[in-house]
Amino acid sequence: MGIATEKLNVDRRDGRLVMAHFYVAFIALAVGGLAGLLQVLVRSGKFELPLGIGYYQVLTVHGVVLGLVLTTFFIMGFQIAAVSRTSGTLTNKQRVIGWIGFWLMTAGTIMAAVMILLNEATVLYTFYAPLQAHAIYYLGLTFVVVGSWFDGAAIILAYSKWRKAHPGTPSPLLTFMAVVNTLMWIVATIGVATTVLFQLLPWSLGLVDRVDVLLSRTLFWYFGHPLVYFWLLPAYMCWYAIIPKIIGGKIFSDSLARLSFILFLLFSIPVGFHHQLTEPGIDPAWKFLQVVLTFLVIIPSLMTAFSLFATFESFGRSRGARGLFGWVRELPWGDARFSVPFIGMLSFIPAGAGGIINASHQMNQVVHNTIWVTGHFHLTLATAVILTFFGISYWLVPHLTGRKLTKAMNKLAIIQGVLWAIGMTFMSGAMHAAGLLGAPRRSSFSEYGGAPQAAEWIPYQIAQAVGGSILFLAIILMLYIFINLAFFAPKGEQDFPVGEVADEAEKAPMVFENWKLWLGITVVLILFAYTIPLIDMIENAPIGSKGYKLW
Ligand code: HAS
Q1: 392 φ/ψ sector (left φ>0, alpha ψ -120 to 50, else beta)
Q2: Nearest CA to ligand 1 atom 65
Q3: For residue 326, what is the domain's CATH number?
Q4: Tell me, what's the pLDDT at 128?
Q5: Among 41, 135, 385, 431, which lies 20 to 30 A Cα-Cα from 405?
């Protein structure tokens, strides 16, 4: 057997820890989805928010609970489940560390949420200066990050234990992938922790009068780009190591999968300037260098696309498929565990192409700060990644709760995925198109003296509202399925599928587990891309901004 699959079931005690993460994630989906619906309705110009609630307040709820809370809780839960399934049940100590992480993250989420609801933290999900929030909001986010480090520690400790027990053997692929994503997350979050603790918190508490906006945005984007790969890599874990088992095929190459994850570790972080290409105060030479590094981080995604095509095609041909695309017919379209993540994969093709456009220095001038960018991340995060997370939930939730995905729920799950695809085609398609016509990314139009609407944007805004409403229906369906699988589905055994490597594939070389080497190169690349620009920023720092509020 290519991949060590030591235990077929996730232990009940680990399962409870994972499900705790999932409950918070799906509550976040409900709240964030509702906020999203309100936004597209306001933008359509046909709806006003009641009770004096501000557009940017709702936008902050939407971004924070979906972009930061849902993702972090789901990912940490899924990674713990993957490690427990492939490297063995967590020890009591590891599980306690996981629970500490969960409670810290939950406490932080409540603190941040209360501040947003009180309209004391209307700073959008990027919360960068000069927008200023209440200190409790920043503390809450710090708790979420520190809590995720505890979860990460549980994952790393479980991996180390496995390594000690199996010297000279490559670790199980899913565990290896969870460890890479955790290490990337820890290195990346140092940036956001630095700006929050040393800049935003003292400024919000009134200990300092002004804040250096460029420095804080730079520290944010040092974290912000690996953040998007922290979202993506768990979806890749499913695409590489789980989907092959679901379709009845084999993983094309274990080594290729590991190499692509290592490349993400190396190249995800030193690329934050591609979010700051229009900002003054950064030498264009350093922007150019980071654009080049951004093009390097596209390579592991192209490798992933290649590997997935190879897996699907080999499987189809093993079933006797002929012709260039004959294998497509052999795939199990009626199985939601495959077809819903597959819709995500399909959407990632135009989504990735959009990312390449964003990263192309000159083209970025056309799309930056337009609603095109919002269209981009609704295809990447809100389709490719989220549909994969939904696809994972369809088998992982019943696996953990000792229930079964019934035929009826499977059908509903496929309807959910298709509705999502239709809604997002309208919404994200219209966002891309309106962006090219210059529609701004963040504007309520109706309040705060927002930009006047151009007549040519209006049909696209209506299309966004139609798409957003369909997406809201799909969210309700997802929540219904989640509640069914968690509490009501018939008792039974639902598999946690773990793929096996193709017979002819080579064994993964041990160099992939040489963390000193990979973390060493990661640090060198970060120092290379950031040291001189940061020195420049600090040496030439302006007096800083006093900050302002959006309410
Ligand atoms: Fe991005 C802005 C560049 C990927 C998320 N991005 C954002 C923002 C978010 C985000 C949230 O360079 C807004 C941030 C903000 O608030 O300001 N992005 C890229 C590039 C990639 C990329 C080069 N982004 C992502 C992913 C995200 C995400 C993934 C979330 C999960 N992005 C940018 C840039 C900006 C930006 C600029 C700043 C814009 C600005 O000016 O503000 C790449 O990683 C994309 C590579 C992907 C591919 C696609 C591979 C395809 C695969 C699927 C294969 C399918 C199969 C099925 C096999 C090359 C793997 C087919 C089967 C058949 C039968 C057909």
Answers
A1: alpha
A2: 346
A3: 1.20.210.10
A4: 85
A5: 385
